[in-house]
Each structure stands twice: as structure tokens, then as C-alpha cells.
Design goal:
Blueprint (H helix, E strand, L loop, with lengths): L8 H4 L5 H10 L3 H15 L8 E5 L5 H8 L4 E6 L2 H13 L7 E5 L5 H5 L4 E7 L8 H7 L4 E12 L8 H12 L3 H21 L4 H6 L11 H10 L8 H9 L3 E7 L6 E8 L2
Parallel strand pairs: 1-2, 1-4, 2-3, 4-5
Antiparallel strand pairs: 5-7, 6-7
Helix pairs in contact: 2-5, 2-11, 3-4, 9-11
Bound molecules: S-adenosylmethionine (SAM).
Length: 278
């Protein structure tokens, strides 16, 4: 039984660990956030629940969305992440919510390992939110998830938008690389700089920053928290991005139909729901 969140410090001492960030997030996870996360899944897929559906979560992070798939009555859920700390988070949630491990399987593995993915089988819903652009080989990862999608199955994907305004995506790549390659103190300074920049942006748009941060994760969001998302954004390196056209052309050329598209305003994630045509 996984009764506590284990920190895999040795492996991730130098490297940014998404999973470690998720561990802090889970400490403040409440029912309201879970309901918002569930709603994000049902709204985007236009399904009331996941009854009789199989669901695979590639790059499960905190495990929150895999948990939601279970709570939405999915028949089978598989969570995969390359980061042991994320795997530990998902196991913690499975244990906390007493979900049967035969229904919710949690595995360490990579979206770049095509043989490993092929061995998982085929799924009605393949979910990979904010993951494949962090693998270092985004286009290979985008290709690798295809065999996981069952006939008439869906792919729910979120990929960073190519932003050409200021600061553009290439500049963000440099900032993220710098953040990821430095230790705690420098990271904290960058975090403070980023948060100040964000707050100035809010003020410039006439928004109340306190209200915005308090309500973060509610409006159109997925139950996430402002600070954890900020750290996730800065530390998320490798970092790649693509225009909606590039992604739609890529899957269109592989016999997928775009069902839903939610465009990012700036450098955030574009969200796509593709259906396999057969
Ligand atoms: C930004 S988080 C997103 C987590 C989750 N999908 C969500 O929506 O909250 C990215 C996750 O992708 C994972 N990841 C990065 N590279 C990966 C790879 N090659 N294979 C599987 N997971 C990977 C990270 O460890 C991290 O947990």
C-alpha cells in the first residue's frame, strides 16, 4: 500500500521534477478541485460519464485526471508517467480514494517508448494533457500515442501553442532552460519575477490579482493552483510548441477527424479532441 507520498530526491536532485511539484499540489486537493477536474473531462469529451469506456492517461502528473476517470466510472484506467514522483502521486490518490488497482493501473514508462505503449492495448479515450511537448521529441511522442487509440476512440490532447507575440515561445524556451538548469535560490528569484510579471499583466488588463489568484483553477480551468501552475510552467523543460495548423495537419494526415478545438490565447496549451476515422 502506498500510504505516503514518497519523494524520489536522488533521481531528481538536479533536474526539475514535475511530480515533486504535484506532491505539493495534492496536499491542498479538495472536492471542489476534483469536481472542476471532472467537469473539464466531461465538458471537453461531451460525455456525461465514462461508463464502459477505457481511459489511458499518458503523463498522468498528479494522477488527478486518472482519478476523475475512475470517479466517472471508467471501466479501466491506466496511468503512465516517466517521473517516479508523479507515479507516487497517482498511487497515493488511488489509495486515498480506495480505487481497485485492477481497475486503475499505474505504471512508470515513457511516451517515447513505442514498444511499451503498444503493449498497453487500445483505449476509448487517450488523454495526454500538457505532456508530449515536454518529452524532448514531441513529434515522435505525438506519433507514438496513435496505436493506443481504439476504433472510434478519441485522443484528448493539450500542446503548447506557438506564440509569436512578446515574449514569444522561443524566448520562453530560453527562460525555462535557464530555470531548469539552476538551483533553489535562482529558481525562487525567477518564480518571483514571473509572478510579478503576471500580476502586472493582470493589473494592466484591469483585473484584480488577489481575486484572480483566489479563483484560479475555476473559470475554464481544471482545478489546478496558481503557484503550482507557475512552477510547472517555468520548470517545464524540455519545451516544444506547435501551431494548431501543424497539429491538425499532422493528425488529419493520419486519418483523424478534429472534433473539438480550444485555442490558447497566448503561449498556453491548445486543446484538441480527435476521433479516429476507420
Ligand atoms: C505538465 S505535467 C501534466 C500532468 C497531467 N497530464 C495534467 O494534466 O495535470 C507533464 C507530465 O508529463 C510527464 N512526462 C514528461 N515526459 C514524459 C514522458 N516522456 N513520458 C511520460 N510522461 C512524461 C511529467 O513527468 C509530468 O508529470
Amino acid at each position: 500500500m502506498d500510504e505516503k507520498l514518497e519523494l524520489y530526491e536522488d533521481i531528481y536532485k538536479k533536474k526539475f521534477s514535475f511530480g515533486k511539484n504535484w506532491q505539493f499540489f495534492l496536499k491542498k486537493l479538495d472536492n471542489k478541485k476534483i469536481e472542476l477536474a471532472k467537469k473539464s473531462l466531461t465538458d471537453f469529451t461531451k460525455l456525461k460519464n465514462f461508463k464502459d469506456k477505457t481511459f489511458i492517461d499518458i503523463g498522468c502528473g498528479s494522477g488527478l485526471f486518472s482519478l476523475c476517470a475512475c470517479l466517472l466510472n471508467a471501466e479501466k484506467v491506466i496511468s503512465i508517467d516517466v517521473d517516479e514522483n508523479s507515479v507516487s502521486c497517482a498511487k497515493y490518490l488511488r489509495n486515498k480514494f480506495k480505487i481497485n488497482p485492477e481497475i486503475w493501473e499505474i505504471k512508470t514508462g515513457s511516451a517515447l517508448d513505442s514498444d511499451f505503449l503498444k503493449n498497453q492495448g487500445e483505449f476509448d479515450i487517450v488523454y495526454s494533457w500538457g505532456v508530449l511537448h515536454h518529452t524532448g521529441y514531441m513529434w515522435k511522442a505525438l506519433e507514438n500515442v496513435i496505436p493506443l487509440i481504439a476504433k472510434d476512440g478519441s485522443l484528448y490532447l493539450a500542446i503548447y501553442n506557438e506564440f509569436k507575440g512578446f515574449p514569444n515561445s522561443k524566448t520562453w524556451a530560453k527562460i525555462k532552460k535557464f530555470y531548469s538548469n539552476h538551483g533553489k535560490i535562482i529558481r525562487k528569484i525567477i518564480e518571483m519575477g514571473y509572478i510579478s510579471y503576471y500580476i502586472l499583466g493582470l493589473l494592466a488588463h484591469g483585473k484584480n490579482p488577489i481575486k484572480y489568484i483566489k479563483n484560479y483553477g475555476q473559470k475554464g480551468a481544471r482545478g489546478m493552483s496558481f503557484y503550482r501552475d507557475a512552477v510547472d510552467w517555468l520548470g517545464g523543460y524540455p519545451y516544444e510548441f506547435a501551431s494548431t495548423k501543424e497539429i491538425i495537419d499532422f493528425y488529419g494526415g493520419k486519418n483523424f477527424k478534429l472534433i473539438t478545438l480550444k485555442k490558447a490565447k497566448r503561449e498556453g496549451c491548445n486543446q484538441y479532441l480527435f476521433q479516429k476515422n476507420d
